[in-house]
Specification:
about 200 residues; globular
């Protein structure tokens, strides 16, 4: 077996990245433990970006099939742990959770966001997998244009508390998908070709 995979067929680098992402995300919510050093409790946005990258990577290396079965596997991997954590935190820590918090509302935005992206990525994988360069350039262009109309460019937007910021993580997820496809091709040049076309204005 290839050295980059473990005995279960998992990519070792992705396992490390997921651990790093989980560590950063968890640490960014530990401000109550360090009230005098709250400014040092950060990194959540970086962890989110890494996790979305890993999600895009594994989605495009995983099994294909009908949408319902495919999406059901995604739900089965995410929601059991979320529900168990919600119950544990409610009983042990007295946190106030509701079903809508992890399904529809932006209070805990991460789960609803990635579940929507799963739907979009299924369509991309099924119908546009051979046009990933166009998908990447088109998505980047749309996001850049929308940013000028939605965001206040006079202030930092990395941690802005606006729903539009979630769309940036789509690009991290898309880069993960492109990387996964790149690894399965002999020429291994999709990412470099994509970046070259962006820098050259779309010319080959």
């Amino acid at each position: 077996m290839n050295k980059i995979y473990d005995l279960e067929g998992k990519n070792k680098a992705i396992v490390v990245f997921k651990f790093f992402a989980a560590l950063l995300i968890t640490y960014s919510h530990m401000g109550l433990l360090f009230p005098k050093f709250g400014g040092l409790v950060t990194g959540g946005a970086i962890g989110d970006g890494v996790f979305f990258f890993c999600s895009g990577f594994t989605l495009f290396l995983g099994r294909d099939g009908g949408f319902l079965n495919w999406y059901k596997r995604r739900v089965g991997r995410i929601y059991p742990s979320i529900i168990m954590w919600a119950l544990l935190s409610a009983v042990v820590f007295g946190w106030d959770w509701s079903v809508t918090d992890v399904i529809t509302t932006p209070r805990y935005w991460f789960i609803p966001c990635i579940m929507v992206y799963y739907v979009i990525f299924y369509v991309i994988r099924r119908f546009m997998i051979n046009r990933m360069n166009m998908v990447f350039i088109g998505s980047l262009g749309i996001i850049i244009i929308l940013s000028f109309f939605v965001l206040d460019m006079e202030h930092s937007v990395m941690y802005a508390q606006v729903s539009f910021m979630r769309i940036y993580y789509f690009m991290f997820m898309l880069l993960g998908a492109i990387t996964a496809i790149d690894l399965t091709r002999e020429d291994n040049n999709m990412i470099f070709s994509c970046l070259y076309r962006i820098s050259s204005g779309g010319k080959k």
